[in-house]
Design goal:
This protein is of the alpha/beta class. Helix content is 33%, strand content 16%. The chain has four helices and five strands, in the order H-E-E-H-E-H-E-H-E.
Length: 139
């Protein structure tokens, strides 16, 4: 039986296989400014534990509740790092931080996969968004 937790905790583009995954961006939506330091440090620590590093300028947070229409300044920084090919992956607390609403998640997921990024949620059970079991492919 496939490992459902592993299937939901990592989103890997087709053909990524064992590509080197050295530089990652970390991103989160947090309720307050003081939470951003703690959450980003936790994400950096998780990345370091996987043998990845977070380049300067590739850690970003947006302040506010998940699902609100935030004026997200942090997410565009992540997108610019991806476009500049500064990172090969993204680490988030859960996929809902990328896009809370289905349409937002689906748009961003498609964009990330098109750019060849892997995405890892450190706690995918926190709030599952946008991934149905039929979307997950198993090796």
């Amino acid at each position: 039986m496939p490992d459902t937790f592993a299937a939901f905790s990592a989103l890997v583009p087709p053909g990524a296989g064992a590509a080197p995954m050295g530089a990652v961006a970390v991103y989160a939506v947090v309720p307050s400014e003081c939470d951003s330091v703690r959450v980003l440090d936790e994400l950096r620590s998780y990345a370091a534990g996987q043998g990845w590093h977070v380049p300067a300028g590739c850690a970003a947070a947006d302040i506010g509740p998940l699902g609100s229409d935030l004026n997200r300044s942090g997410w565009p920084r992540v997108r610019r790092a991806v476009q500049a090919q500064a990172v090969t992956g993204l680490v988030v607390p859960c996929f809902a931080h990328i896009g809370f609403r289905w349409a937002d998640w689906n748009r961003e997921r498609t964009w990330l996969l098109r750019h060849g990024l892997f995405v890892v949620a450190t706690d995918p059970t926190e709030l599952l968004v946008g991934v149905s079991p039929k979307e997950v492919t198993h090796p």
